[in-house]
Write a structure and sequence with these properties.
Annexin V, domain 1; 19 helices; 66% helix
C-alpha cells in the first residue's frame, strides 16, 4: 500500500529509512547514488522499499528532513574535527544554546543506531580478518571488543595466533572507550564520512569478554592465544581462564575426563565443592564413579555440616584449577569451539 506522508511531517514520526528515502528523492538519482554507494545492500534495499511506498511527500516533511540533514552534517563534521564538545560549541554558535541543545539531542538519537563500528559488525569474518592483519593490535582490539563474541571468534581464526594473543591481551585490559575513538577507527578502516557517536563512554573489553570469545574458538587456537597472554600477563591469563570454565561447567566433561579428574581429587574436598552445586553437576560426578566410590561420596556429603561460602568456593576453584592442569597436560578434554577431527 502506498504511504501518504502529507500529514506525517513531524520528524519523530519518520523512521531513519524514511528520512533517507525523502532525502534521496529530493536530491535526485545522481546525487542519491553517491550516498547509497556508501551503504550496505540491506540499507539500500530498505531505502528503496520506502521510496517505492511513497506516492507523495508534503512540503513540510521535505523541509524538515533537509533541515535535519544539514544539522547532522554540520554536527558530524564538527565531531570529526574536534569531538562531541566541539560539535556542541559549533551548534550553539550557529543556532543559540536552546535550539542547539534540542538539535544535538535529536541528532544523537537520530544517528545512535549507526554509530560505532556499525559496518564492521556486519562484515564477513574472513574479509575483516584479512583487512585487520596490517593494523595495530590496539586498533584491532578496539574493533573486536565491540563485535559479537561469535563474530570475534570467527575473526580471530583468520589472524596469526601470536598476533591474536596480543590483541586478546589488549581486549582483556580494556575498560571504557570514547565513542569518538570508535568513529575515527571505522572511518580509517572503511573511509566512512557519515558517522557520529553517541554520548558518553561505551563498555568494551575486559576478561569476561575475552573468556566468552575464547570459549567459542577451537581448543588449539585457544591454547595458542592464552599461551601468548600468559607470557605477557600471567595474572590476567589466570583470570581469563577462571572465567572460561566455572565449576558448573563440569557437566560439559565427558565420562573419561570425569573419571580422570576424580583420581586427583580428595573425597572430602569434592563433597565440600558439591555442597552448593546443582543436581546436574552432582549427578554428573556420581555417574562417573564406581558404585563403591559413589556411596562413599554420598556418605561424606551427608556427614558434612554447615560450611562457609568461601570454603565451598575455594574447593570449587581448586577443582577447576585441577581441570585446567589436566587439560594443559592433554589428559582430559574441556569443551570449547568445534575442533578439527583427526582420524
Amino acid at each position: 500500500m502506498a504511504m501518504n506522508l502529507a500529514r506525517t511531517h513531524q520528524l519523530d514520526q519518520l523512521s531513519g529509512a524514511q528520512k533517507a528515502a525523502i532525502l534521496c528523492m529530493v536530491l535526485g538519482s545522481e546525487s542519491a547514488s553517491l550516498i547509497t554507494q556508501k551503504l550496505g545492500p540491506d540499507e539500500v534495499e530498505m531505502i528503496s522499499f520506502e521510496i517505492a511506498r511513497m506516492d507523495r511527500v508534503s512540503t513540510e516533511a521535505t523541509e524538515a528532513v533537509l533541515a535535519e540533514w544539514i544539522e547532522v552534517m554540520m554536527a558530524a563534521d564538527s565531531i570529526a574535527s574536534g569531538g562531541l564538545e566541539f560539535a556542541r560549541e559549533v551548534l550553539e554558535k550557529a543556532f543559540g544554546p536552546t535550539k542547539a541543545a534540542a538539535m544535538f539531542r535529536r541528532i544523537v538519537e537520530q544517528i545512535s543506531e549507526t554509530a560505532g563500528l556499525h559496518r564492521l559488525r556486519n562484515a564477513d569474518p574472513q574479509q575483516l580478518g584479512n583487512m585487520l592483519r596490517g593494523e595495530h593490535p590496539q586498533t584491532v582490539a578496539l574493533i573486536l571488543a565491540h563485535l559479537d563474541p561469535t563474530h570475534t571468534a570467527q575473526v580471530l581464526k583468520e589472524l596469526d595466533p601470536q598476533f591474536g594473543a596480543e590483541v586478546v591481551l589488549r581486549v582483556a585490559r580494556m575498560e571504557k572507550v570514547s565513542p569518538d575513538m570508535l568513529v575515527l577507527i571505522e572511518r580509517s578502516i572503511l573511509t566512512e564520512t557519515d558517522l557520529a557517536p553517541t554520548q558518553g563512554l561505551t563498555t568494551s573489553g575486559g576478561p569476561q569478554v575475552v573468556a566468552e570469545v575464547l570459549n567459542l574458538v577451537t581448543p588449539s587456537l585457544e591454547k595458542a592465544i592464552m599461551r601468548g597472554v600468559e607470557e605477557r600477563d600471567p595474572a590476567l591469563s589466570e583470570q581469563i581462564r577462571n572465567l572460561m570454565f566455572v565449576f558448573e561447567d563440569v557437566v560439559s566433561l565427558d565420562d573419561r575426563s570425569i573419571q580422570r579428574l576424580l583420581r586427583e581429587i580428595d573425597v572430602k574436598e569434592l563433597a565440600l565443592a558439591l555442597k552448593s552445586a546443582s543436581n546436574e553437576v552432582k549427578n554428573k560426578i556420581l555417574g562417573g564413579m564406581s558404585q563403591r566410590a559413589s556411596a562413599a561420596l554420598k556418605e561424606e556429603m551427608e556427614m558434612l555440616g554447615p560450611a562457609r561460602k568461601r570454603d565451598i568456593e575455594s574447593a570449587q576453584t581448586a577443582i577447576v584449577a585441577m581441570i585446567r592442569k589436566l587439560e594443559d597436560a592433554g589428559e582430559i578434554v574441556v569443551g570449547g569451539g568445534a575442533d578439527d577431527l583427526v582420524v
